[in-house]
Amino acid sequence: MDVEKAAHDLVDAAIQVHRTLGPGLLESAYQACLAHDLRKRQHHVDCEVPLPLEYDGVVVEVGYRLDMRVDGLILVENKTVEKILPIHQAQMITYLKLTGLSLGFLINWNVLLLRDGISRVVLNHPTRPMRHC
């Protein structure tokens, strides 16, 4: 699967879920609905993926979990917060580093229009420098 095609489908599915449900629900509700919509579009979606941490040659299980991984290519962190903060961006960058992936989306479902709540985070993308948008 092409990462940009998967990213397009992800954004489109997220918009569809948000249009249907609106803001104000729990993060878990949006995550389940987004996963369902992406699977209908023939994407492989893993939810609540354990993320072990390696330090000094030792694997440390500390309970980190990725909200979603789409097609093994894209990370998704779902939030229902007043505003995406720099720490949320830092979390996504760290998760990208730990997984070796280059593309992630932060989705804040607690907005009136989803375009105001979705952030694409790219780390070491082969065709683009790192950016936040």
In short, what is this structure?
The chain is α+β, with helices and mostly antiparallel strands and 133 residues long. The chain has one domain (3-132): Trna Endonuclease, Chain: A, domain 1 (3-Layer(aba) Sandwich), CATH 3.40.1350. It has helices at 3-21, 27-40, 86-99, and strands at residues 45-50, 53-55, 58-60, 65-70, 74-79, 103-108, 118-122, 131-132.
Number of strands: 8
Per CATH, which architecture?
3-Layer(aba) Sandwich
How would a crystallographer describe the biggest sheet? 6 strands, mixed
Distance between the termini: 23 Å
- Outline type: globular
Percentage of residues in helical conformation: 25-40%
Please trace the helix and strand order, writing H or E for each element: HHEEEEEHEEE
Can you tell me the CATH topology? Trna Endonuclease, Chain: A, domain 1
Q: How many helices in DSSP terms?
A: 3
